[in-house]
Protein: DEAD/DEAH box helicase
Organism: Polaribacter marinus
Amino acid sequence: MPFKKLHPHLKERLTSLEINIPTPFQSKSIPVIKSGTNVFCTAPKDGGKTSTLVLTTLHKLKCEEVGNAPRAIVLVANNEKALETNDAFLPYTRFTDLRVYLCDEKSHIDVLKSEIFEGVDILIGTPKTVNKLLLLEGLPTSQLKIFNIDDAEFLVDNASYTALVAITQSIQKCQFVIYSEKMHPILKRFESTFMEYAKTVTI
């Protein structure tokens, strides 16, 4: 049972949210992601991909604040998706000291840099914004443990694809997990770069 082997805080929150039975995708994907390997995760819409992303990320970070540099990044298509993903974390980060930071594209890059400098555990943003932060040395990556890409179909956009490639070149060692509805050919390209030796979980 995937939920039984999660961090005690997450099990407690799942119980309080009356979520007792994992989806087929969660049953299959959570143990693989927890193993620490790179993973391609494909499942239909509403199959439990975003909730799996939230649970495995928080489990990886042991549901606690550590240091100032981000230990997890969640890459999304746009600001609207970033807000949705941020909201998905809220029920599970309640009663913890974890710092989830939303990189609002509407904010000036210097504002984002200064706020990240104050201390962040999980950073949510678009490829464009995250890459810009890296170029301006406003995003330390030395402490990164997990890098998620949610609804990765948006990477067919050339600008997003190029920004992601640049971002991954700035990361030395990290687990990468890509979530999508289908295994798009453009995602397969990453097997020769940062997704080398990746496992695939499909529902």
